[in-house]
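Case study 2.
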Amino acid sequence: MNASADSEALTYESDYPIVLNPDPVFLTLNPKCDAPNDVVRVEGWQISQTDSHLIDSSRKFFKKLKRKLKNPSLLTKDEFHEMLNSYLEKSSERAGVSTGVDPSDEGYNCKLVEKVGFLMGSEVKGLVLEGCVVLEIWELLETLIVRGLAEHSSSSNLVHNLIEKRRSDLVCLCVKHVSDLRTADLLSVLRYFLSPPKGGYESMVRVREEWESQALSAVEKAMDSKLSGKKLKLAKEASVLLMIAYDGFSASELCLHYLLASLNLDEVVLSSCISKLIGSEIMSLIQYLGKWVKKYERFPQAGPCPKASSSLGLKSCEWVPRLEDIVKCLGLVLDEHFLSLVLHSEFHEELRSIEGLVNALSLESKVCCSMANVIESLRTEVKGAYSEFFSYCSNFASSLFPTMSILENIIIVPVDALLGFKSCGQPVSSVKGCRKRSLPGVGDGPKEKRQKNGSRAYF
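Prediction:
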């Protein structure tokens, strides 16, 4: 009922509820006059008979389904399926598109949507999405999302309704396949995965099973004797990447992978989302990012494997956050919540553990960049059999330079500001107008002291 009420105000009937094909229309246009003006009116525009039939069919289906959804308790799943199938069958017939699907096949409606779902207009798609949520027809909704038929313009409350229904797996699909999610939607998703409510873990298990399946598949391919050359090398790289992405992460953190790796989440949007987090959510995010820093420090050979998705069918490789993504996110946490991190000692232990890892990564990057310079000099002097070896070593070492740059420019922050910051020679707690408070959801931790030697640590 709530889903129906929320989207009713945004659901309207357009005069042209389908995307018109302009090609035959342009052929019938003629200039209205022969005057040699820069702008000439044209006439002869008319909708083709095929488009007219599709528009009429869409209008009838839209009105009927909208009327039914006003009282969804009287609408059954079978009736909904029958209405949708009939509409899509008529639309495909009038458009001259063959579905090639037998009505007796299992999952007929999903296959029909895959074949001719593109014939649905924006308003019709919005109502169909709403009906799937209200009636909890999750398999059909998954098909609509994966096929790119779920758009924010069609159903603005889709993410909110899925979170209310605790469908974590479908929320992940929205992050992966819906390209026009709003900042508010992304913030809701971030908060949902950082502090999952009761009832959300059951559907998160499906996400964990998917990651586990992909990781095991990568290991099997890496050990497959039939693979050789580039594919075998790619399989080994993918197995390492998926192994570190799966091991040690909770089900909700595996869901966070999709968000951090999403193209929807640029630096501006991510900064806006992070700035609105509260204490317990900040702690969860720092712990999650700390796990990633530890993984990349322990397995420096792990890196992006986008080709593994198309070559080996390991789709999850596209959704593993890069080290650059993790470091930038951690930098934004420090930027947006620096004062909170200073005032609340419960964050200090987590940040101290990350400090050592970041220092190690930064030092390793500097060494590798020095090696790259030496190898480049040697390569100019050595010809023949060793040139390929030097080229490989140089490329490997140089590839770490961007990481070093990010580590130095974003995460190099004085740790003593977090572990014992002083203003005018006084502790923060004694400065007028600066009172230490506990953040929601975070308990008081042990107080930290400044190092006796007064040295400053950086990370």
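The mean pLDDT is 76.
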